[in-house]
Amino acid sequence: MSTIQNKKIVAKEYPLKDILSNNKYSIDYFQREYRWQKENIDQLIDDLYSAFRADYRPEHSTKDVANYATYFMGSIVVIAKDDATMSIIDGQQREF
Length: 96
Hints:
Layout: H1 16-20, E1 24-27, H2 38-55, H3 62-65, E2 76-80, E3 85-91
Parallel strand pairs: 1-3
Antiparallel strand pairs: 2-3
Protein backbone atom coordinates (compact mmCIF):
# COMPACT_ATOMS: atom_id res chain seq x y z
CA MET A 1 0.00 0.00 0.00
CA SER A 2 1.42 3.39 -0.88
CA THR A 3 1.40 6.25 1.53
CA ILE A 4 -0.20 9.56 0.81
CA GLN A 5 2.27 12.38 1.03
CA ASN A 6 1.31 15.58 2.77
CA LYS A 7 -0.05 17.35 -0.33
CA LYS A 8 -2.47 20.22 -0.11
CA ILE A 9 -5.16 21.26 -2.50
CA VAL A 10 -4.86 24.98 -3.11
CA ALA A 11 -7.53 27.04 -4.84
CA LYS A 12 -6.41 30.42 -6.15
CA GLU A 13 -7.47 32.94 -8.74
CA TYR A 14 -4.93 33.61 -11.46
CA PRO A 15 -5.02 35.99 -14.39
CA LEU A 16 -5.17 34.10 -17.69
CA LYS A 17 -1.81 35.55 -18.73
CA ASP A 18 -0.21 33.95 -15.65
CA ILE A 19 -1.78 30.59 -16.44
CA LEU A 20 -0.58 30.61 -20.03
CA SER A 21 2.87 32.16 -19.49
CA ASN A 22 5.85 29.89 -18.95
CA ASN A 23 3.78 26.77 -18.26
CA LYS A 24 3.54 23.49 -20.11
CA TYR A 25 0.29 21.54 -19.88
CA SER A 26 -0.61 18.00 -20.79
CA ILE A 27 -3.89 16.12 -20.96
CA ASP A 28 -3.67 12.52 -19.83
CA TYR A 29 -5.26 9.61 -21.66
CA PHE A 30 -8.01 9.13 -19.08
CA GLN A 31 -9.61 12.48 -19.84
CA ARG A 32 -12.93 12.33 -21.63
CA GLU A 33 -12.81 13.48 -25.20
CA TYR A 34 -13.83 17.06 -25.61
CA ARG A 35 -12.91 19.20 -28.56
CA TRP A 36 -14.01 22.75 -29.16
CA GLN A 37 -15.55 23.49 -32.51
CA LYS A 38 -15.44 26.83 -34.34
CA GLU A 39 -18.77 27.88 -32.84
CA ASN A 40 -17.40 27.33 -29.30
CA ILE A 41 -14.44 29.60 -30.02
CA ASP A 42 -16.70 32.20 -31.66
CA GLN A 43 -18.94 32.19 -28.57
CA LEU A 44 -15.95 32.70 -26.24
CA ILE A 45 -14.70 35.64 -28.32
CA ASP A 46 -18.21 37.15 -28.38
CA ASP A 47 -18.48 36.76 -24.58
CA LEU A 48 -15.08 38.40 -24.01
CA TYR A 49 -15.95 41.22 -26.39
CA SER A 50 -19.30 41.84 -24.67
CA ALA A 51 -17.69 41.88 -21.22
CA PHE A 52 -15.08 44.37 -22.45
CA ARG A 53 -17.66 46.59 -24.15
CA ALA A 54 -19.70 46.78 -20.93
CA ASP A 55 -16.97 48.93 -19.35
CA TYR A 56 -15.39 50.49 -22.43
CA ARG A 57 -15.50 54.20 -23.08
CA PRO A 58 -13.56 55.79 -25.99
CA GLU A 59 -11.88 58.24 -23.65
CA HIS A 60 -10.43 55.48 -21.43
CA SER A 61 -6.69 55.01 -21.29
CA THR A 62 -4.86 51.70 -20.94
CA LYS A 63 -4.68 52.36 -17.21
CA ASP A 64 -8.49 52.62 -17.10
CA VAL A 65 -8.87 49.36 -19.02
CA ALA A 66 -6.68 47.59 -16.44
CA ASN A 67 -9.39 48.35 -13.87
CA TYR A 68 -12.29 46.90 -15.85
CA ALA A 69 -14.37 44.13 -14.30
CA THR A 70 -12.87 40.66 -14.37
CA TYR A 71 -14.24 37.86 -16.52
CA PHE A 72 -14.47 34.37 -15.01
CA MET A 73 -13.11 31.85 -17.52
CA GLY A 74 -13.91 28.78 -15.44
CA SER A 75 -11.95 26.51 -13.19
CA ILE A 76 -9.28 23.94 -13.92
CA VAL A 77 -7.70 21.32 -11.71
CA VAL A 78 -4.05 20.56 -12.39
CA ILE A 79 -1.34 18.48 -10.79
CA ALA A 80 2.38 19.13 -11.16
CA LYS A 81 4.26 16.27 -12.79
CA ASP A 82 7.90 15.45 -12.17
CA ASP A 83 8.97 17.03 -15.47
CA ALA A 84 7.48 20.44 -14.48
CA THR A 85 4.48 19.88 -16.76
CA MET A 86 1.06 20.62 -15.34
CA SER A 87 -1.36 17.79 -16.04
CA ILE A 88 -4.94 18.99 -16.52
CA ILE A 89 -7.08 16.73 -14.37
CA ASP A 90 -10.38 18.50 -14.87
CA GLY A 91 -11.73 21.68 -16.36
CA GLN A 92 -15.07 23.42 -16.33
CA GLN A 93 -16.52 23.30 -19.79
CA ARG A 94 -18.29 26.45 -20.79
CA GLU A 95 -22.07 26.07 -21.03
CA PHE A 96 -23.88 27.65 -23.93
